[in-house]
Amino acid sequence: MSSKLLLTPGPTNIPERYLKIFGEDIIHHRTPEFRRILKESNENLKKVFKTKNDVAVITSSGTGAMEAAIVNFFSKGDKVIVINTGYFGERFRKISEIYGLNVINLGYEFGDGYKLEDVKKALAENTDVKGILVTHSETSVGILNDVKALGELTKDTDMLLVVDTISGLVANDFDFDGWHVDVAIAGSQKAFLIPPGLSFIAISDKAKKAMEKSDLPKYYFSIKQYQKYFDESSETPYTPAIALILALHESLKDLINKGIDTTIKEKYELRKLIEEKAQNIGFNLLVKEEKNRTNTLVSVYREGVIIKDIINALEDQGYTVTGGKGKYGESLMRIGILGEITKEQINDFFILFEKELKKQLGE
């Protein structure tokens, strides 16, 4: 195992039981064994997303899945609302514009969640909106966006609700079918506890219909191809990251056995502990409202503290944390809790954090 504890928004430390898989010989992806593994993994992914529909497994980082979530379901010139509460909302906007979509960008200050009345106003002023794109857990900030409320707006319409839950899934409540989500994407390096390289795409029946009309170019990211191969032979259309899929198979079994609700509760308790400890040493929470805080990571800041120096010192002592972006580049620390992290590890981290803080303040 790594000597460093990754308190980052992903990737996470990889548990020993999954690391072993990468040291074993590989299997071929056109064999009965691989088909069985992919089929079982699909059944468990359906349980994780809470959907009755199959979930495509693509060899790609999350950004590839974001691109797939756009090119498969929209056409050039389609009007979409992008709810932009951070760097990954901004990424959705950029990908949409590159493919010629007409973007209504609802931008918010770092640390603020979106306002439902802004979305309702944009919909009232634009009766031709084809989709709403939103980041569930915005890791650049630590915001958790209310997906369920958006589903209530889109459920009885032709509009698609497209959700990036790459870092949100498993650590936070998510209900694909129950919340009327149409497209949702996730990634292997987050709460699935395996390396980067796989992304998962769940789609609704409504999204399948939209897929038939989409005229945007796609080849590798064509969800139709993934569906066709899975339906016909429980395979992927192209050579996948086989070792990652073998590790995913084990990770999913563990997640289901443990229970998603149990994991959410554990992450919530870790988040509350970090919030309390950070405030005890004079740090502020970037996300002010409790309902807008994700269990994926905690963003804390303190004016006048050069956080980069503290982050570098902690790195030297075996703890990897990440800084902020934009106007919080100097003062923000993002403490991620997606991995198998204990309260004891958080307590140890804060002992060193406080020590480095006192050094900088000359105390």
From TrEMBL:
Mind telling me which Pfam families this protein's record contains?
Answer: Aminotran_5
Taxonomic superkingdom: Bacteria
Is the keyword Transferase in the record?
yes
Q: Aminotransferase class V domain spans which residues?
A: 27-340
UniProt keyword terms in alphabetical order? Aminotransferase, Pyridoxal phosphate, Transferase
Question: What InterPro entries does the record point to?
Answer: Aminotrans_V_dom (IPR000192), Aminotrans_V_PyrdxlP_BS (IPR020578), PyrdxlP-dep_Trfase (IPR015424), PyrdxlP-dep_Trfase_major (IPR015421), PyrdxlP-dep_Trfase_small (IPR015422), SP_NH2Trfase/AEP_transaminase (IPR024169)
**Stored PROSITE patterns:** AA_TRANSFER_CLASS_5
- Residues found modified as N6-(pyridoxal phosphate)lysine: K190
Cofactor(s) the protein requires to work: pyridoxal 5'-phosphate
In its UniProt record, a GO molecular function of this protein is: alanine-glyoxylate transaminase activity
Q: Specify whether Protease is a keyword of the entry.
A: no
Among the GO biological process terms of this entry, one is: glycine biosynthetic process, by transamination of glyoxylate
Binding locations of substrate: R334
Instruction: State the similarity comment.
Output: Belongs to the class-V pyridoxal-phosphate-dependent aminotransferase family.
The name on file for this protein is Aminotransferase, class V
The species is: Pseudoleptotrichia goodfellowii F0264
**What taxonomic classification does the UniProt entry list for its organism?**
Bacteria, Fusobacteriati, Fusobacteriota, Fusobacteriia, Fusobacteriales
